[in-house]
Design a protein that fits this description.
two-stranded antiparallel sheet; 108 residues; 2 domains; mainly alpha; elongated; 2 strands; 4 helices
C-alpha cells in the first residue's frame, strides 16, 4: 500500500495548506508563530525547567489554561447575573443607593 503524499494528506483533511498530524491518536495542525527574542528566551527558560517537552507543549498548555480561565470567567459572570436577578428590584433612586454604600465605607 502506497503512503499518501503530503498534498494528498492535506487535501483530505478539508483545510487547504494545513497538514494534519496525529499525536496520541488526536489530529493536530501545524501553526507557525513569530515572537521577539525576549519571549523566545522565556520559552527556553521554561523548557529548561523540564516541565514541557518542547515549545509546542508549552504553548498548548498555555492555551488550555486560557480556555479554563475563560470558562471560569463566564461562570462567574453568570453567577453574578443570577445573584442580581435573585436580589430583586428596589424602589430607591440609584444616587441614594450609592450614597448609602459610600456612607458605609471607612474613610480613606
Amino acid at each position: 500500500m502506497a503512503v499518501p503524499s503530503r498534498s494528498e494528506r492535506t487535501a483530505r483533511n478539508g483545510r487547504l495548506g494545513v497538514p494534519v498530524l496525529k499525536v496520541y491518536g488526536v489530529a493536530m495542525s501545524n501553526l507557525n508563530i513569530s515572537m521577539p527574542p525576549a519571549l523566545e528566551r522565556w520559552i527556553d527558560a521554561r523548557l529548561a525547567q523540564g516541565r514541557y517537552a518542547d515549545a509546542a507543549d508549552y504553548v498548548r498548555d498555555l492555551i488550555r489554561r486560557d480556555q479554563q480561565a475563560a470558562q471560569e470567567d463566564g461562570q462567574w459572570v453568570r453567577a453574578m447575573i443570577d445573584e442580581g436577578y435573585a436580589s430583586g428590584v428596589i424602589d430607591a433612586e440609584p444616587e441614594d443607593v450609592l450614597k448609602e454604600i459610600m456612607a458605609r465605607l471607612p474613610d480613606a
